[in-house]
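Good morning N.,

You mentioned wanting to compare the apo and holo forms, so I went ahead and generated the holo version with histidyl-adenosine monophosphate. This is what I fed in:
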Amino acid sequence: MIKTVKGCKDIYGEDIEYFRKAEKVMRDTARAFGFREIIPPVIEYSELFQRSVGKDTDIVEKEMYTFTDKGGRSITLRPEMTASVARAYVEHHFETLPSPVKLFYIGPCFRYERPQKGRYREFYQFGVEVLGDESPLLDAEVISLAYRISEKSGIKGLKVRLNSIGCKKCRPHYKEVLREALKPHYEELCDDCKRRFYTNPLRILDCKREKKELKESLPKITDYLCEECKSHFEKVQNYLKLMDIPFELDNSLVRGLDYYTKTVFEVVSEDLGAQNALLGGGRYDYLIEELGGRHTPGLGFAIGMERFVEVLKAQSKIIEKETSIYIAYQDSTLKAALDIASNLRDKGFTVLVDSKGGSFGKQLSRSGKRNSDFTVIVGEDELKKGTVQLKDMRKKEQKEVKVEKIIEELMSNES
Ligand code: HAM
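and this is what came out, ligand included:
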């Protein structure tokens, strides 16, 4: 038997209902905040991720699906979509559009990670990016969008973790301070962190293998921010309070992608286990420049769709079921049955027309197995009078209704 590739999964049944429902809330809420959609390609030149996500990150070092195409180019299945949106901004001169440019996206991403609950090799991200504005009001607005999406989907018990990781001016100094503080503990560090000590010591702060006591004893980045970053961070917090968005400051939050500057945040849920980040994001004021554009500040976040669905399911949000209707008929009434099905579908009902035929008894039993809400029984005798039998499958009640009144009757029965 051929199975799905390791770390990938089919999304079907109940999961797809949750997925599409969540997607609709995300799209509608993002549109209400003025975002428009972009669909970037799934593959990009590998260099894009090396220059944006960063050569020394776990994603680029270990997790990318990279191959050489028939023309000898190095191609990568995108591990995330911020880099693609930034590339599109530079490539299509979005700087000529009114600023800020606000874009959202949804699509599959690929990371060669060790699969576990909430961590897959193919996963979907819904994300937003705001380009061309450095106002801290936008940081708060983007965080509030993430929060509202979760709230509107009915998710409870979420925590917003917030931090600032400074900028090109203040972060290098903090890195040195951190290295100094870590030096006496170098031998205790895990192999990854020994490497990070030289490449990016900040990542040691969120390594799950390092001792909590060690991490808590280290200097805090927020004490080393330059005036500009400090004031920006204070304003973000004030705006979040104005918007009634609860948040917690967390100095260990550093994020695993190199492009971030100033504000970084994650929304976590207790219902997720070890991989508890439902979404993550932050500001990236130099990314567009790194990719050859003019200085253009930016920020955004991405939600992991599988994790979002997981939380919705754990909190058992009932998905509203659409009213489903089964049509039973005789050979002589097929045309009328098909017309009724077509009219009902136009009105948004989910309609199944029996395909096996036989007695009404058999057709009704098939309708029952399908869990239909109603069966429309199109019999020859009734049709002569311009009527059909309408059976409420839950109440087990049946009544004769005029063909042109079927919809009215169904609507009056919808709860
Ligand atoms: P990220 O934190 O790497 O950020 O991923 C965002 C979200 O994608 C995570 O919080 C998680 O829900 C989901 N995710 C990541 N990896 C996996 C995986 N292997 N399996 C399942 N879900 C996963 C980014 O990707 C940034 N581009 C976010 C961003 C947008 N920053 C600014 N703009």
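The pocket of histidyl-adenosine monophosphate is lined by residues 80, 82, 111, 113, 118-120, 123, 125, 127, 129, 257, 277-282, 300-302, 304, 306-307 (CB under 6 Å).

Happy to go through it together on a call whenever suits you.

Best,
F.
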